[in-house]
Amino acid sequence: MAVLDCRHFTGYKPCGLSDRCDEACSRKDPVSNRILLIHLGALGAVVRSTALIAPLRRKFPRAHLTWVTQKPADQLLRSHPGIDRVLTTDSADLLSLRALDFDAAFVIDKSLAASGVLAMTKADLVYGFVADPRTGAIRPATPAAQELWQIGLDDQLKFHRNQKSEIQLVTEALEIGPWKRDEYNLPLTSSEELLRAERHDAWSSQGLRRVVGLNTGCSNVIAAKKWTIETHRALVRRLQEDPAIRVVLLGGPEDSQRNQKIAQGLDLIESPTESGLRDGLVSVAACDLVVTGDSLGMHLAISQKIPVIAWFGPTCEQEIEIYGRGVKIKSGLSCSPCWKRTCSKDVMCYDGIDLQQVEKSLRDLLGLQERPAPCHNPEQPELT
Length: 384
Hints:
This protein is of the alpha/beta class.
């Protein structure tokens, strides 16, 4: 008799771990709960939410986990050993979702779209956030989500009074706590690990140099979360004077032309930017340290336990958990944070970042001595 409650059972062929689907199968893995996680949000936020896998597994030790997200975030999740099924908002996947029932659903996004996904299935219990079916207003699904909901409605609370990280707030809102500071969980595959090692060896000259990744981009939603081209070039000029440091520019397809402008005439490496999210993850993992704004690149570095120097202007530094690996540097502007999507001020957030502080933090984290004195050439001005 087929084991219908096995994690791997599909009903139309053996799963590939065994050639039989009955009680005699040595690989059967009975499931006690079926749970659904809905997180459609920004790519970096989806990476951060991998920290929820551990507490979910503690609460539901023998659960089958389905995660619904938007493309292209599914590329980051599909090979994950802790996620049993990844679905997207494509019509074919949503048809599949309509065939499923769940013991519990966890909705992270405060959005109509996420509530619409939830409406396409059945769940005995719902945690997180739901939409009022008449007004479309988002509200907490249970009292536990009240704190996170209220933070989003009160700028003073969000910007100044709240001191909890976003992942702690989400963990508590979904009632899968208590918060145990679980780390991001985004492992490389075996082939990706080999590629990571190859890149690190090549970029570090077989370990003779420390690889500093400079993540140059961010989402266009809040464009002020990234430095100007000249600010990146100024930092590279400082770092390239030290033969113990090798700078690598990181980014995605949207950053290719920008990285080329940053790299012009400088001694650095441009990582591949056109090979997809997983390849970008490998490049981040091949670094010894990453300098970044509040962006996907920052979350990818945190997921790989790479020390980060993360700078914050329009967004809230206290919402980011870096697990004791790195330094947060805040803009000195009094209007920061603001979460504004556009800004017309003469002095921007990124103008308030001290590159000397960035370099000192970088050297401290890598265990390097102070920057060596530059070689003076009477025919060239001193680099600053």
